[in-house]
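ESCALATION

Customer reports they have been waiting on this structure for their group meeting. Please prioritize. Original submission:
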Amino acid sequence: MSYDTVIKIENLSKVYNIYKAPIDRLKQFIIPKMRQAINAPRKAYFDEFWALKDISFELKKGESLGIVGRNGSGKSTLLQIITGTLQPSCGNVITNGKVSALLELGSGFNPEFSGRENIYLNCALQGYSTHEIEERLDMIAAFADIGKFLGQPIKTYSSGMFARLAFSCAIHCEPDILIVDEILAVGDTPFQQKCISKLYSMLDDGISILLVSHDAYQVRSVCSKALLLHNGKQVMFDASSRVMDEYIASFGSSNAVSDTLPNTIIDVEDANEVTNYSNFSISIKNPVLLDIHSHTVSSVSSGDSLQLIFTYEISGAISTDLTFVVNLYREDGVYIFGTTTQMRGLPPFSAENGGKVSIDFPSITLVSGKYKWRVAVNDARGLNILAEATPVCAFSVTDDFQAVGIIDIPHTWSRVSLAI
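Update from on-call: job pushed to the front of the queue and completed.
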């Protein structure tokens, strides 16, 4: 393990014994010993469930790792083993540095204590003295920003308030490794933005981050690497963009869309969707789909050239530059395509007072079917949604070549007779 490696996992596995009835536990405790005494063959009264099997990866100082996979794939089990709250069945786990973990709401907190008392409790568990905690108290309270509720028992908190306090405690304990297990999903949008900005600054300071999330944009933006798990097995460990492509591709039904994509389709008839914040709002106006002759279209042929255009307006003071998003869905919700200006390597755009965005598609090779678009305006990092409109510009495709599936892949046929 090199000096700059903060986490090293080698052939890590975790197995649980699953008993069909309580009496089987007693049988397993007694009978195998009796059978061994008389040299009888062993018999197990349980089934094995491998929550993790043969996981291996390394994370270096200042790197960020996203851990993704469907529910039940072993993500939380892996984090618990890394933090030491769960022991592996086999394999090695080496951590180098102080670990601060947000595994679930409520861990490390007493519901009867006030928020302030829980700050003392949580920081004391991290090894800080009373004097050191008092030095950090104002910073923790300011970041959590829960006001008078800091003096109230946390059993009266909403999940969002709890997440604010827990995240603030974790980041102010000066960790070398920060582990976050989907806790940001319960916070409101402004707080999520503040948390993500803090994660960026922590990475700049050389702190390593493990992030479990179903949010594809969040993982792509925050994490340099990603680990894909499926049924407890390691499917892929690579750059986050490659892993998220594989993750999204692994979903083959419309039921998986909400588990894969950060921006859920909202069935609204009004395409002028507005997102309001305390000091500004952005409106998406007049999305339109045009053909090569700049005519509005609702029906096209496979292979046609198309242009999707929308305008956006800004009111109030805005402090971030902008990135833009386009997604394409089949009528039944199957995710077809999506990209952002950030993913394409374009720098963030100045916000100013608004503007017009166009996305040109030289050849839409979709097969026959009905489709719909989603467009959005995100912040400079390409992570937080500032405004979105969906579904917009619904259209149908006629495929003259009579292919089936989603896209028409150019090809030719040939036949050679075999000599007899």
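Sent to customer with the following note: The CA atoms of residues 244 and 329 lie 18 Å apart.
Escalation resolved.
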